[in-house]
Amino acid sequence: MSAIYILWLRELKRYTRSRVQLVASLGQPMLYLLVLGFGLGPVFKRAGNGSYLQFVAPGVIGMTILFSSVFSGLGLLWDRQFGFLKETLVAPVSRLQIMIGRTLGGATVAILQGLLVAVICFLAGFRPVNLALAPLAIVFMVLIAIVFAALGVAIGSSLQDMQGFQLIMNFLVLPIYFLSGALFPLDGLGKILSLVTSLDPLSYGVDGMRAVLLNLTHFGAAIDVIVLAIVGSILLVIGAWRFSKIEI
């Protein structure tokens, strides 16, 4: 357990000690929140859907957690390049503990970033429908972070260098975000698009946060929790298996 704690603490300290990373991690969420939230607000309101800022805020929080957790897993590539991964793997610690420590560390950092963005959303004008249920949103934030931190570890364990990073970004992470319903309602979509969005794990995370924060849901909060828990468990197993196959 000490190895898991140390690796978790390393990820946390690396994030909190880097002020540049702390500020930069908030740039993209603020862009989506302020530009889209206020820019598309009048259009969304004229369509009879209420405040777009209210609608998009949970999606922006989900986006923040998605990017942070996946990139923390891809940090394996940096550790491989600079030799830290080799030193970790030759230590008298099981690879499963190393993988769990890294995954939990990345997930914790992603949750912290999500909470910071949640505060920014509140300052920008976002208001939960029921404040008593607002803490339940953290449950969905944790589930999203674990799912995509495990995915990041699985991908980072499979890549050999940084050349595949941009491909992962363009053909996996961005589609996951844009197809999650973070920016548009999932109701009334065509059959093909509805099927694709239902296969996107982030769809259930964003939908779950909207359920507890805005009392709006497409799949149902219980379904959201079940799907995220199942997908997270599967990706943790895959991530552990891929990490056990790493060769330095």
Molecular structure report:
With 248 residues, the protein is mainly α. The protein has one domain. It has twelve helices and no strands. The chain has helices at residues 2-16, 19-24, 27-39, 41-46, 52-82, 84-89, 95-124, 136-158, 165-178, 191-198, 201-214, 221-244. The longest helix is centred in the first third of the chain and has 31 residues, at 52-82. The protein is globular and about 60 Å long. Belongs to the ABC-2 integral membrane protein family. Its main location: membrane. Keywords: Cell membrane, Membrane, Transmembrane, Transmembrane helix, Transport. It holds the Pfam family ABC2_membrane. The chain crosses the membrane at residues 20-40, 52-78, 99-126, 132-155, 167-186, 219-241.
Topology of this protein?
Elements: H1 2-16, H2 19-24, H3 27-39, H4 41-46, H5 52-82, H6 84-89, H7 95-124, H8 136-158, H9 165-178, H10 191-198, H11 201-214, H12 221-244
Helix pairs in contact: 1-7, 3-5, 3-7, 5-7, 5-8, 5-11, 7-8, 7-12, 8-11, 8-12, 11-12
Tell how many strands the DSSP assignment holds. 0
How many individual domains?
Answer: 1
Distance between the termini: 24 Å
Portion in strands: under 5%
Unreliable parts: none
Q: How many DSSP helices?
A: 12
The secondary-structure class comes to: mainly alpha
Q: Write down the secondary-structure element order.
A: HHHHHHHHHHHH
C-alpha geometry: globular
Protein name: Transport permease protein
Domain ABC transmembrane type-2: 20-246
Transmembrane segments: 20-40, 52-78, 99-126, 132-155, 167-186, 219-241
Organism: Acidicapsa dinghuensis
